[in-house]
């Protein structure tokens, strides 16, 4: 087996490609010491950090019911029937997101429980060879990114829970992943409450500020890295951008929100693109080509799902042929 760190980009349904790539890397014998992810990348990252092997990850992704992910909020005792987009429109106005995100949150929690992972305490790691100066809050197998729009800052969880008077080991992994999944205007944002002051912060998708933090595990003490970092990308470079990949019909009811969504989604791609153009960054990145697959295409049939996973598998297969695992 070969050690590595793994960083997974966000991108909604295109995360099926991520899963395919990770499955191939696990089949190749990689052991991932630390895993980071944003949005849907945080989901796969959590499962890998929890110890899933290739077959377990493949099974979980095959059983995922995509159509249930866009879960409308109930208006009164039941959904308003026969009025297209009304539920989503009301949720946008009331909750700042078209869908609750409750179904995917519960699904993540249930899957992690099968690997006996509940809080970040279950993902604690101790390694004397880590960078000098690494804090106690950073000694975990998993990092997910989110964006605090109240404070205007990127969150790296569990690293940054101390900023809110919270102990990382007490926080639920599924809650952190759900925060990272809060695609602006699509899923309702989450609230993070300061443990001492009681102040609430509104949290949205980590991709707003950093959708592909491939440098997150790079050493800061000047020492040579003990193993490689592998990144998996699933969004195209600008100018194609995410603005052409995101689709939420309910936004047509609110032209201002539609403009804001275009600004946010373009930023998701653009913020990381300049970093990708630095020397050596793309060399450690697997890019999965998923033409015509939208971030919110939750109605994919079985054939389309298998094709997306297969494209991810093939992209990672090309990587392992080009970059063999490190010798023991």
UniProtKB/TrEMBL annotation:
Start and end residues of each PNPLA domain: 6-218
Pfam families documented for this protein: Patatin
Gene3D superfamilies tied to this protein: Cytosolic phospholipase A2 catalytic domain
Motif (DGA/G): 205-207
Keyword Hydrolase (UniProt): yes
Motif extent (GXSXG): 37-41
PROSITE patterns listed in its UniProt record: PNPLA
Xref: InterPro entries: Acyl_Trfase/lysoPLipase (IPR016035), Lipid_Hydrolase (IPR052580), PNPLA_dom (IPR002641)
Motif (GXGXXG): 10-15
Membrane as UniProt keyword: no
Keywords: Hydrolase, Lipid degradation, Lipid metabolism
Source organism, top-level taxon: Bacteria
Active site: 39, 205
PANTHER family: ANNEXIN (PTHR46394), PNPLA DOMAIN-CONTAINING PROTEIN (PTHR46394:SF1)
UniProt protein name: Patatin-like phospholipase family protein
Protein source organism: Streptomyces tauricus
